[in-house]
Model the fold of this input.
Amino acid sequence: MNILICGSGILGKALYTQLNSHKNIFVELLSLRQCEFSFFKQKFNNLGEKDIFIDSMDPNDINESFNKSIYEKALMFREYALRNSYEPSFYYLSTSNLYKPSLGFINELSEINSAKSPYLTMKFNNEQLIKDYCKSNFALLRLVNVWQSEASNSFFGDIFYAKSNNLFIKSRPKDELVISYAHVSDVCKIIEYVITKKVFGIINITTNSFNSRENIKAQVNGRSIKSIIKNIGYRIYSNVINYEKVIYKKKELF
Done:
């Protein structure tokens, strides 16, 4: 089996490392910044019926500072891949934040939020594009918030920096919202399982870990933990994949 990953961000690189450990899988990772369109077309056209294309090309956010030229390059690559997706299976890395916040658990059949940020609008539109134009098997992988202790410029990056430097981390609006999260290595193990078992459709990639940002900050600040029973948010689980059968022991924040 050949796997082509396009998009060499934190998750793309971690997926490459995870999948490259298989002796019977050949994995290639393409950087959007460095890859020319002609080279991408060559690599994609070499994929056959048993092969896999992983779309990890989206930016981390849509804001004033994001690289518009790289974003437009991703659109061009994705359009070509979908237009020529007759043979390889197509796996798109989406987000579980597309769902409508809830007091209860959220699964693959839960309602999508109608109010969307520019980033979530991008994810929703890309999902629709794949549903409408992919000519082969596809999976929309809706990932929870991915964390790792080495990350920077993110909520979890700030959390680990404050904890390691014994700093107080300030509260922000909407800290009471419940979020779901998973370590990058656990996310990669679940995606590896989904790919090798040829699971398709909409799939929540989650380890059933959730809490409010307020409580996560409280653990760093040495404050008491509050009940989140009445807190709205994203308690994400999957009807499709039982993570406990895939991960021996999931990584915890603290």
Observations:
- The first helix runs from residue 10 to 19.
- The radius of gyration is 18 Å.
- The chain is about 35% helix and 20% strand.
- Residues 2-146+182-208+237-245 form a domain with the Rossmann fold fold (CATH 3.40.50.720).
